[in-house]
Amino acid sequence: MTNPPNNTIFQYVRNRRREKIGVVVATKRDDNTVGYGYSLCAVNRGDDFNPSTALNIALGRAQTWPFFQGVVPSSVANDWEEIWDRSERYFKDAKFDTYDNG
Question: What are 97's strand-pairing partners?
Answer without folding.
Answer: none
